[in-house]
Amino acid sequence: MFHTHSLSLSLSSERIFEDHENLVENLLNWTRDSHNKLMFIERIEKYALFKNPQNYLLGRKETSEMADRNKEALLEECFCGSSVSVPEIEGILWLKDDGKKSWKKRYFLLRASGIYYVPKGKAKVSHPLNTPIDC
C-alpha cells in the first residue's frame, strides 16, 4: 500500500495525498520554479485506528491486545453509537509560529471544541484551555 507524499520545502511542510485525490490536479497548482518534492512512501499506519482502536480510543497510556470482536464493538460504539462523542487526544506536535523559521515541539490537546496547545512551562491541565489554534 503506497501513498503519494508531497514535501513543500518553501512552506516547510509535508502533505499526504489520499487514494481518492487527483494527483495531477494538485501538482498543477505548483509553480514552475517550485522546489517541492513528490515521494511515494509506504504508510503502514494508515489504517492503524481500525486495526488497533484501543490504542487511540480508550484514552489510556497503556495499550493491550484486544480480541477482534471487542475491537469491532469499540469502533461501533465510537462511530455508530447513539451518543457519538469525539475522543480527546493529546500528544506532542511541532508548531511553527508566524514569522519564525524554526519549529518548536509543543504539547497539544484535541477536543470536540478545538485543538489547543499547552504553553511552554505550564502543566498539562484537564480543564478547557484558552489557547485555541486557528486552522
Automatic annotation (TrEMBL):
Pfam families found in the cross-reference section: PH
Q: What's in the GO CC field? A: cytosol; plasma membrane
Q: Which residues form the PH domain?
A: 86-135
> Mind telling me which SUPFAM superfamilies this protein's record contains?
PH domain-like, Ubiquitin-like
Q: Where is the Ras-associating domain?
A: 1-45
The alphabetized list of GO BP terms reads:
signal transduction
Q: Which PANTHER family match?
A: GROWTH FACTOR RECEPTOR-BOUND PROTEIN (PTHR11243), RAS-ASSOCIATED AND PLECKSTRIN HOMOLOGY DOMAINS-CONTAINING PROTEIN 1 (PTHR11243:SF15)
Q: What is this protein called?
A: PH domain-containing protein
Which organism encodes this protein?
Oncorhynchus mykiss
